[in-house]
Amino acid sequence: MVLDAFYYNDTRFGEYVDGTYYYGNSYNNSMLRENLNSLVIRAAFQNYNELYTGIRYSTTASTTDNNYNRYADGTTNNDSLFVLSYSELNDAAFGFASNNDRMAKATDFARARFRTLGAEYVITSDGYAPYWTRSPYSYGNGDTAIYVTANGSFNVAPVDSVFGVIPVVWLDTNKLY
């Protein structure tokens, strides 16, 4: 289910942060990542804080559409909430063997967010919505990222576009019992 709708970033162009240049499609410095790990989203899980833990995940080129992707910043993050990468969403071991496996319907809340952000037109008549991956696109100017279309295929869009978000939570299964 698509739970919310966000911009990947509010600007297509990169910026300098502490003397280092980050492209607009850098997940590490994106609004998408910031929003996922904000107090608003974390509040949804406040009663279950002991169940989820941070997970180390990569933003290297191997998680994108091209092993030589110059826009993949190569960082390893340790967030509680994140979105899947292009390579994870293209992996049958994760349950994504076809486009149909990647299709996701928007919740009522996500539909309202799309409407508020002026992007309700991206939701299909039967409720399917496109959603972001954390993978930058490997060609262009560093201002596009890969997303999953409403029909489950992959495409690219400028990072200041609005698409859905499917947060991933890493649960400590030892604490479920």
Characterize the structure shown.
The strands form 5 sheets. Strands 7-8-9 form a 3-stranded antiparallel β-sheet, with no helix packed on it. A two-stranded antiparallel sheet has the order 1-10. With 177 residues, it is an alpha+beta fold. The protein is built from 4 helices and 11 strands, in the order βββααβββααβββββ. It has one domain. The protein is globular, with a radius of gyration of 16 Å.
Gap between N and C termini: 26 Å
Query: What oligomeric arrangement do these chains adopt?
Result: single chain
The dominant shape is globular
* Helix vs. strand class: alpha+beta
How would a crystallographer describe the biggest sheet? 3 strands, antiparallel
Strand content: 15-25%
Question: Reading side by side through the largest sheet, how are the strands ordered?
Answer: 7-8-9
* Number of β-strand runs: 11
- Which stretches of 5+ consecutive residues score pLDDT under 50? none
What's the SSE pattern? EEEHHEEEHHEEEEE
Whole-number tally of structural domains: 1
Tell me briefly what this model is.
This protein has helices at 31-36, 39-43, 99-102, 108-116; strands at 4-7, 15-17, 20-22, 55-58, 76-79, 81-82, 131-136, 144-148, 154-158, 162-165, 168-169. By secondary structure, it is an alpha+beta fold.
How would you describe this structure in keywords?
single chain, 177 residues, alpha+beta, 3-stranded antiparallel sheet, two-stranded antiparallel sheet, 4 helices, 11 strands, 14% helix
